[in-house]
Design goal:
The complex is a heteropentamer, with two copies of chain A (260 residues), two copies of chain B (270 residues) and one copy of chain C (330 residues). Chain A has 260 residues and is α/β, with parallel strands linked by helices. Chain A has a domain of 129 residues: P-loop containing nucleotide triphosphate hydrolases (Rossmann fold, 3-Layer(aba) Sandwich). In chain A, a hairpin with a 2-residue loop joins β1 and β2. Chain B is mostly helical. Chain B has one domain: MetI-like fold. In chain B, α3 runs parallel beside α6. Chain B is globular and about 75 Å long. Chain C has 330 residues and is of the alpha/beta class. In chain C, α1 packs across α10, α2 runs antiparallel to α9 and α10 packs across α11. Classes of the chains: A alpha/beta (260), B mainly alpha (270), C alpha/beta (330). Chains in contact: A-B, A-E, B-C, B-D, C-D, D-E. β1 of chain B pairs antiparallel with β7 of chain C, so a sheet runs across the interface. The complex binds adenosine-5'-triphosphate (ATP) (2 copies) and magnesium ion (MG) (2 copies). One adenosine-5'-triphosphate (ATP) binds next to α1 of chain E. Chains B, D: Belongs to the binding-protein-dependent transport system permease family. Chains B, D: It is a multi-pass membrane protein. Chains B, D: This is ABC transporter permease.
């Protein structure tokens, strides 16, 4: 049994298939990059991993648990934008990752003090301790994304989902963010799914690179069929295509054979 | 040079800003002069000096019978009604707006209804209000509430819906319950808009207040204006109008300042 | 003298003034105006006080008003005004109504809803006088718009109202415990409903006075004859039906015959009434800041006598044109 | 599951949307029933059936005297006043707002004045308006204009100021004169906002219209309500209120649709 | 006499100097890159070149003409954002560059038809012919900037001013834009000033790279003194520093000597 298991997942909006027969098994600690054409359903896939949406068919489970019906603390997320709270200072944004889980939404007394200390430690780690009392709007795009990642990590999720986290940054900042993310991952050993538009980025950061594309294509109606995972590259081996597709995706074979 | 590129110097700018006020004053003085020359007892456009004298009297001299200074009593009464009316409207619209914006069930239930209700002319419903809420303070406050709540609710609900979906999802991944999302994500971001909304609605609130006071009252700024209209005491009316304008201006300014102070993150930026 | 040929009269909805609307609609006014080579337009204004204000401001040559409001607004405002036509006096049209049992004397300590500073207020003052009370003894007066008086009466806060017809009959009919404890029939001739015009305009343009008087008394003749069509038109214009309108007329002492109107204007009680009205107005501060005393404004009567300040006569009762109508000289 | 994640199904949604309307109807029917049981002549809450009958009569039966259907006459008169009032206000505020937003001299001259004027309670100035503009149609239109223009002007001026400076500069580098910048850069971008503003102001415009018609008029929706208010003819009042609500709703919807159709670029996006 | 001549230009806001003693001479057809720290006054310098602002001292003239007091057709500009008109379609944006100069702001009849044809030709050149009828908001950032440049060129300015034109684009698009701009320049031989944050970009595209910096520094009040041009690299020679600074900037020498 793998850590994250996606089994025969379909998604459709208003009767139009977006994703079809998506199957993938991910081990704990793997870094999965997801690439594909614009609009092919990468974000949709991430939303399902996040349990923001439930698939119309199939199921996604983490560590063998029941499929989730809504987002929760075991799944952290960072979007391209709007991932931090503009009305809280940088430090408050980090503390919020602990406070939000409390019934009142606030921490008080010594719990607050402890959380504050942990937050400051996290700020040092993500290099934002010098702007702890500023509001996110006064940070650069890269700093905001670092904050968003730090915030997500503070909640100690079991899986971290990133939807083009660096899509709005300029190239220098982007490289810094790659280093930052690589370091963080080395520290935490987190399972990560990252959607990106940038193939190079996907291969550089990912252990595996999943490519989403349509396998079926109706020239009369290009929107008819949904996309699925068409390639699953092993990026650790320098990008040599993964050779055991059928082993892993029995549904693609004429005679489906289960493999746990 | 294009007219849009001509920028007045500082002293010119000050002069220009004063000009329309001076012009109105002068126009009024001349109009008043002409009418008074025809009929010295004319009440319609009293001389500025007389308005000044009346204003002084209204602000300082007590009523013949009770010794109370009516203007302050009126001001107090009206401001209280305004405060309660706007306060209740703000609270109701905040709660409703947040619920509509955040909870899909409430959105389905209320958004159409609020849209229709916001089109009802509240003044026409006054008789029903009287019967239900009596003739006292309650019905005046309720008129203000009914008059401004639906529109404020619509706007606030829209603002809640405008909060990026990403933030709501992010809050959930941090373990926030619906209540925490309300209290710590939506509310703080909607509050500045609430104040902006109050500022916008105050004009209508004054209108409803004056209308309600004109219908049944024995104290209040609107009451006094309608009462003295009965003998065309324009000096009193104008004093009250200027006073209301000043009050409205101060309240607006205060709200603007509060908003700026209370929500520093709104002005943060690179 | 400033002669002109176009005149404008303002009127508002009230039992005794409904003929003004009929004059305009039926063309009777035009007929008489044509006869004198002038043009008279009669304009309806919903807000009574506003109509007098407009007249005072010079927008109209005449307005329908009571003797009391004429004294306080135009006359007090320095506009020399003449009562061209005395149309009627309220004979029960204005009333003090209380909920449940109890008389006038029981108003002590209770709030009273009325249109402040109006004839209702005056009626209340006169009523309280008659039982040895004054406004001070009440639980306060609450200014209440006439338009909302009926709705107001149905609320629990309200214990007594003073108002006029059609509101009086409306309230008395629709609620079982409403009782009129004092009405204008107890002070006959004190609340006069007039058509007042600018003295100067009238002096410069006698044709104006003649045309208006002539037209008015033609309609009075029709009403006196009980012309149902005429009365129905007036009833509907006032928002009621023939029966309702007739009920209101019953509480109104219309001067259908010009001679009666002349007699009322010339009556010996009128100066006393006007003096009392002036005192009431002064007491309420309505005569304005410039008024050093209640007799600051002079009122002239047909026989030449004057009450108040003879040097500041701004309100005149003039029977000339009503007399002409009585004499058939129009 | 969090309450914010519960999404009603389609049929539930329709049911929910209808619920408040049904609730109000039922509450009214019960209230009416109770009052009528106590006093069959009660006028305050006429039975729904009676309102229906009255509405039918008002919409279809002509006046006995003239044969004209008063409701349509009233509607026509009121809509015309509204149209002129709002039309003039829109034009004035557009011109003034653009001038304030684009021309620094005009901005200095007018922005303070407009800010102060927007605080004046217009209802209190009614007597003066009637004297200056007479009692005819003009004063009613003017009340609407005075009531809503200042706030619209402020908002439009702000919108013009919000147009990125870059666009104005770019237009100049393309050789645009001040006039061209007005006509081809600022105006098209402010027009949608003008419509939004009109939608917002229509509530106040109705208010002012009804108030003006109550003072001096012999036709119009507000006049009729005022006239029958004295007799507490709630069946007529409620019919008129519902009718005004329906008119307001249709106008609002039409403006929204026009705005969407006329400004496709507003909805363009990646 | 050089084509663009900037002589002893000073600029200050609210009494605080931003730029001091800026001198530079530019030949027709040169591509000038401008770099410098954030907030040092690069955009301010461009605004003065554009005549959006006039310097408090000194003068800027083009081709020996009188200093301009407001922007006009001889100076084209492209900003980082907001350079195109959102309420016009792509084609209308181009046509506007001709129509705006007319008294009415519109072209009619055959003039309009001709302008439309020229606009379509321009759209082909900038590769936007397939989206001629779309609104700018539906274009990607790179396409919007190409449109902005095409629009500016349509007015045939004598000098083109670019303020971080590619600052908001992602790296792939950025490289495409470099090629695009290089091609266009080769065609038109335009004189260009470009502000950029990206040194590499500045050197890649520019014939000369001007560096703005503060020469005087007051540790008590860092905002006291303004910046000026501290280096003027010749980027054609592969970035070897320009050696004749004194020849060109007599104001920096103890004994000023004029040079035309
Ligand atoms: N809630 C929704 N309702 C209807 N259609 C949707 C919804 N969400 C997404 N879609 C459609 O599903 C398709 C896939 O969208 P998705 O956002 O997952 O693509 P993507 O691969 O993330 O694209 P991009 O690279 O542009 O982010 C698109 O055609 C989109 O229009
Ligand atoms: N109109 C103005 N009024 C007052 N100060 C200004 C004005 N314009 C610019 N400044 C100030 O002048 C300085 C230089 O600004 P400028 O925009 O020219 O910098 P820049 O070099 O373009 O910076 P960046 O790289 O961030 O774009 C800044 O400190 C800025 O705050
Ligand atoms: Mg996506
Ligand atoms: Mg800059």
């Amino acid at each position: 049994m793998s850590f994250v298991s996606v089994r025969d997942v379909w998604q459709a909006y208003d009767g139009r298939s977006i994703l079809e027969r998506v199957n993938v098994e991910v081990e704990e600690g793997e870094f999965i990059s997801i690439v594909g054409a614009s609009g092919c359903g990468k974000s949709t896939f991430l939303r399902m991993l996040l349990a923001e949406e439930v698939p119309v068919r199939g199921a996604i489970s983490i560590d063998g648990g029941a499929p989730a019906v809504e987002p929760g603390r075991e799944r952290g997320v960072v979007f391209q934008r709007y991932s931090v709270f503009p009305h809280m200072t940088v430090r408050e944004n980090i503390i919020a990752a602990e406070g939000f889980a409390k019934p009142s939404g606030w921490l008080f007394g010594s719990a607050r003090k402890a959380a504050r200390n942990r937050a400051d430690a996290m700020l040092v780690r993500i290099g934002l301790n010098h702007v702890a009392d500023q509001y996110p709007a006064s940070l650069s795009g890269g700093m905001q994304q670092r904050l968003a990642i730090g915030q997500a990590l503070t909640a100690k999720p079991r899986v971290l989902l990133l939807d083009e986290p660096f899509g709005a940054l300029d190239p220098g900042t982007r490289l810094q963010m790659h280093d930052f993310l690589t370091e963080l991952r080395a520290e935490t050993g987190m399972t990560v799914f990252m959607v990106t538009h940038d193939l190079a980025e996907g291969f550089k950061l990912g252990d595996r690179v999943l490519v989403f594309d349509k396998v079926r294509w109706d020239p009369m109606d290009p929107g008819l069929h949904g996309a699925t995972i068409t390639y699953d590259f092993d990026a650790r081996d320098g990008g040599v295509p993964f050779q055991h597709i059928l082993d892993r995706y029995p549904s693609l074979a004429p005679e489906p054979v289960g493999k746990a | 040079m294009r007219i849009i590129n001509h920028i007045p110097t500082r002293p010119t700018a000050v002069l220009l800003a004063a000009l329309p006020f001076v012009a109105v004053l002068v126009a009024y003085a001349i109009g008043s002069e002409i009418r008074l020359a025809e009929n010295p007892a004319d009440k319609l456009l009293p001389a500025p000096a007389q308005i000044g004298a009346t204003a002084l009297r209204l602000f300082t001299e007590g009523d013949r019978r009770t010794g109370e200074i009516l203007l302050w009593k009126d001001t107090w009464a009206s401001l209280m009604r305004l405060l309660f009316g706007v306060g209740i409207a703000a609270t109701v619209s905040l709660v409703l707006g947040m619920a509509i914006g955040l909870v899909p069930y409430v959105r389905r239930l209320m958004s159409g209804f609020v849209a229709v209700v916001s089109m009802v002319p509240p003044l026409a419903l006054l008789p029903i209000l009287f019967i239900v809420f009596g003739l006292g303070e309650v019905s005046k406050v309720v008129l203000i509430v009914i008059g401004i709540t639906p529109i404020m609710t619509r706007d606030l609900a829209q603002r809640v819906l405008d909060i990026p979906k990403e933030q709501i999802v992010k809050a959930q991944t941090l373990g926030a319950s619906s209540w925490v999302i309300v209290a710590r994500v939506a509310l703080p971001q909607v509050l500045p808009r609430l104040i902006a909304n109050i500022r916008l609605s105050l004009g209508s609130a004054w209108l409803f207040l004056i209308a309600a006071e004109a219908v049944a009252s024995d104290v209040g700024l609107g009451y006094r204006i309608f009462l003295v209209r009965r003998y065309l005491a324009m000096d009193v009316i104008l004093t009250y109008v200027l006073w209301i304008t000043a009050l409205a201006f101060v309240i607006d300014w205060a709200l603007k300042t509060i908003s700026r102070r209370a929500f520093p993150w709104l002005e943060a930026g690179l | 003298a400033e002669e002109k040929t176009e005149f404008k009269l303002a009127w508002s909805i009230y039992v005794g003034w409904m003929p003004w609307g009929y004059l305009e609609d039926s063309g009777i006014m035009d007929k008489w105006a044509e006869k004198y080579g002038i043009d008279v337009e009669i304009v309806q204004i919903n807000d009574y006080v506003e109509s007098i204000n407009q007249y005072t401001a010079g927008q109209f040559d005449g307005v329908s008003a009571t003797n009391m409001d004429t004294l306080s607004i135009p006359a007090g405002g320095g506009i020399d005004t003449t009562a061209l036509i005395v149309g009627d006096y309220s004979n029960g049209n204005d009333a003090v109504i209380v909920k449940g049992d109890g008389g006038l004397a029981d108003l002590k300590g209770k709030p009273v809803n009325l249109v402040e500073l109006s004839v209702s207020h005056y009626l209340l003052a006169r009523g309280l006088d008659s039982v040895g009370l004054s406004e001070r003894d009440l639980g306060g007066v609450v200014n209440t718009s006439d338009a909302d008086m009926i709705a107001a009466y149905t609320t629990d806060d309200v214990q007594a109202v003073v108002t006029w017809n059609p509101l009086v009959s409306e309230i008395l009919n629709s609620s079982d415990d409403a009782r009129a404890v004092f009405d204008s029939s107890q002070i006959p001739g004190e609340i006069l409903d007039l058509m007042v015009v600018n003295t100067q305009t009238l002096a410069d343009n006698p044709a104006f006075g003649k045309a208006v008087a002539g037209a008015w008394y033609e309609v009075m003749g029709l009403m006196a004859d009980g012309d149902e069509e005429v009365l129905t038109a007036m009833a509907e214009a006032s928002g009621t039906d023939l029966k309702g309108y007739k009920a209101q007329l019953a509480a109104t002492e219309m001067f259908y015959a010009p001679a009666d109107a002349v007699a009322q204007a010339s009556s010996a009680e009128l100066p006393t009434t006007m003096t009392e009205v002036a005192e009431f107005l002064f007491d309420k501060g309505i005569l304005g800041e410039g008024a050093p005393s209640a007799d600051f404004v002079g009122v002239a009567y047909p026989d030449g006598t004057v009450t108040g300040d003879a040097a500041n006569v701004k309100f005149r009762f003039d029977t000339t044109y009503m007399q002409m109508a009585a004499d058939g000289a129009l």
